[in-house]
Amino acid sequence: MFQAGPTGEWRIETITAVRGPSLPQAAMLTVADGLLQLTNGAVWALRGHTSNLRYTTRTELTALDQRQASLGRDDARCAALIPIRKSAAWWELAQDERRAIMVEQSQHIAIGLDYIPAIARRLFHCRDLGEPFDFLTWFEFAPEHTAQFDALLVRLRETREWHYVEHEVEIRLTRAN
Amino acid sequence: MFQAGPTGEWRIETITAVRGPSLPQAAMLTVADGLLQLTNGAVWALRGHTSNLRYTTRTELTALDQRQASLGRDDARCAALIPIRKSAAWWELAQDERRAIMVEQSQHIAIGLDYIPAIARRLFHCRDLGEPFDFLTWFEFAPEHTAQFDALLVRLRETREWHYVEHEVEIRLTRAN
After folding, report:
1. Do B128 and A49 touch (CB under 8 A)?
2. B74 at the A interface (CB within 8 A)?
3. What is the ipTM of this complex?
4. Pairing of strands A165-175, A135-141
5. Using a CB-CB distance cutoff of 8 angstroms, which residues of chain A are in contact with residue B125?
6. CA-CA distances (angstroms) from residue B61 to A95, B52, B107?
């Protein structure tokens, strides 16, 4: 769970509404496994869970696994949390239609591969938890890779897949200690 | 949600452990949308939610939609609730590997098509809710189609997909009124 409030191990630098409404401003973010009890002074909290892969083939997974970076690296002092919700039209598509848009037309996996291992990433699902977003993606990277991360976001947001994103917030953070 | 206990619109005829432990015996079953508060005397309850399609292609969906039967038909006085959990090995497979086993090798969609519109079906997901099962499938059919339903179960349980089912309970029901 991600909880924003007066305390936390990550300092919130900016909260930007990319599409749709923003989230309330807060000073710090706590990242915790499982369903943490909300602490006093919490401004907002977003829950999600890691789950099985929904689109990735074995070939793609092997390519990702060979290069994937892990979270929690010492030099990864920058992070981003990007909650998104996709439209009803997206969720009504059949599996092959979603994969064709996401993987083949939008090159979502290939674009991601261009930025690992510099950018470490973890996807959390929340559509089925009654949360306001469908996905939360958490990224960690070293300060010198900030421009690469910015480029990754620009490329993804130009894709056809992103036409289906109806709510997106971008939260940029730095490690507090 | 499905709640078993002393009251409900469906009479529980049998509860059978197909693989792994059974569920406690109970007299009646209540089927309710959303997250019902447990009523007094509830023996067990299983939660799930309908979700987007995870494997079905547009072509398969069109074939299903053309023949699909709706729940709640007057003559559908028999029902079955089949909770299943698949193994960790299943969930660690990539998307294309799961689809290959389920759709191509096991013919899960094709087998299902053979029994609609006689057998109406709805799938609920619960893996991401911290429930003891991954899926709950609810079936409704007229008494004269019971043998067809039995045959459907036999065929599915003979598939390679079912090698990955590590817990399955079969609950047979009849409408109480």
Report:
1. yes
2. no
3. 0.84
4. unpaired
5. 128
6. 10, 12, 14
- What is the rounded CA–CA span in Å between residue A62 and residue B88? 19
Find out whether the peptide bond into A117 is cis, omega within 30 degrees of 0: yes
B58–A97 CB contact, under 8 Å: yes
Reduced to 3 states (helix: H, G, I; strand: E, B; else coil), residue B29 is strand
| B47-86 residue pLDDT tens | 999 999 999 999 999 988 888 889 999 999 999 999 999 9
CB B61 within 8 A of CB A94: yes
Cβ <8 Å between B51 and A127 = yes
Q: Which residue of B has its CA nearest to A59?
A: B94
* Contact by Cβ (8 Å): B168, B18: yes
The size of chain B, in residues, is 177
Chain B CB within 8 Å of residue A104 CB: no
Q: What is the pTM of this model?
A: 0.88
CB neighbour list of residue B106: distance below 8 Å, 6 or more residues apart: B156, B159, B160, B161, B162
What tokens were used for B111? 């087998």
